[in-house]
Each structure stands twice: as C-alpha cells, then as structure tokens.
Amino acid sequence: GRTLHRPHLRTFRDGWRTLRFYMLQSPRWTFLVPGALLGACGSMGALLALLNVNIAGVVFDAHTLLVSMLALLVAAQLVSAAILAKTFASGEGLLPSDARFEKLARVFTLERCLMAAGVLVLSGSGVVAWQALHWAGAGFGSLDYSSTMKCLIPAFGAVALGVQGAASSFLLSVLRMARR
Q1: Nearest 5°: CA angle at 149, between 146 and 154?
Q2: DSSP 3-state of 59
C-alpha cells in the first residue's frame, strides 16, 4: 500500500539471504539429517539389490544398486558438509561448542580418517582390477551384466567415497588447526 516510494526490499534476494542465514545456523537440519536419511535409503536399496530381493514382482538388481550408490555418495557429501559447517561455525563462534562433537573429533583424527579412506580406495581398486582380469580371462568378450555390475558399482563407490573422505578429512584438519 505504499504510495510515496517503492518498497526497498527485494523479495527473492532478501528472502534467500534470510533462508540461507537460518540454514547455515543449523548444519544438523540442513545437511546431517537429510544425509543420514538418504544414507539409510541408499544402504537399504544396496542391500536389497545385492541380495537379489524380489518383492511383489519388483526385482532389485544392478540398476537399483546404481541409484543406491548415488544416494550413498550424496549422503556422504551431505554428512561431510554438516561436519565441516559445524566445525567452522563453532570455531568462528557462530555456534556454541558441543561436547559430543568434540569427543567425536578426537576419535576421528586425520590419520584415522586417511587410513579408512585408503582402505576404501585400495579395496575398490582391487575389485576393479580383479574384474578387469576376469574380463581378460573371458577374452574381453561379453560378461554377465548383473553380476559384473554388482561388483563394480560398489567398488567405484568405495573409491569415490575414499577420495571424498580423504579430501574432507584434510579440510576438516585445516579448519580445526585454527582452534588448537
């Protein structure tokens, strides 16, 4: 109802800035909870696919496993973002310190995370190499699609999760350096 001058607020810009501020103040609800839910769904889908479950005519196979692996990769990224955001916000005084979070930070050190990441990368790479040898043994001909993909999809996911985990661990270590 202004008649003398235009409103000074920009609906989208100012609304986004407010929403962004609220989201950044709560990394648990912005990243952690959606990541955990997506991870649970991805794990369930992967388990159904790896066990060849058939429910009411619905077959959970390699395609389900592929979508489930994508869900697990996105979930890992969201959980990583939650941890990094919480660390940064706590270090800058934007969020209060959390004793449980600090205890977890002492358990999951850079070295331990890098070892876990290394195990994921090496085991995934090993499965890929094993499948390549199996393919070579078959004269580089066609292989059973379902069984091959059920080995390769988790292996590729393990490599991706390992690399992602190592990179996130380094960044987390850098963020924690300033607080020591």
Answers
A1: 135
A2: strand
Residues in the chain: 180
Q: Which residues contact 164 (CB under 8 A, 6 or more apart)?
A: 73, 76, 77, 80
**Residue 111: Cβ-neighbour burial (10 angstroms; 0-12, 13-18, 19+):** exposed
pLDDT by 10s per residue, the chain, length 180: 566 777 677 778 888 888 888 877 788 888 999 999 999 999 999 999 999 999 998 989 999 999 999 999 999 999 999 999 888 888 888 888 889 988 988 899 999 999 999 999 999 999 999 999 999 999 999 888 888 999 999 999 999 999 999 999 999 999 888 655
| Tokens (6 digits) for 119 | 């195990």
- Nearest Cα residue to 21 out of 89, 91, 67: 89
| Closest-CA residue to 175 (of 99, 101, 75) | 101
Residue 58, helix vs strand vs coil: strand
- The secondary element (H helix, E strand) that includes residue 54 is strand 54-55
What is the pTM (predicted TM-score) of this model? 0.84
Please give the angle made by the CA atoms of 91, 163 and 135, to the nearest 5 degrees: 170
CA–CA separation, 141 vs 135, rounded Å? 7
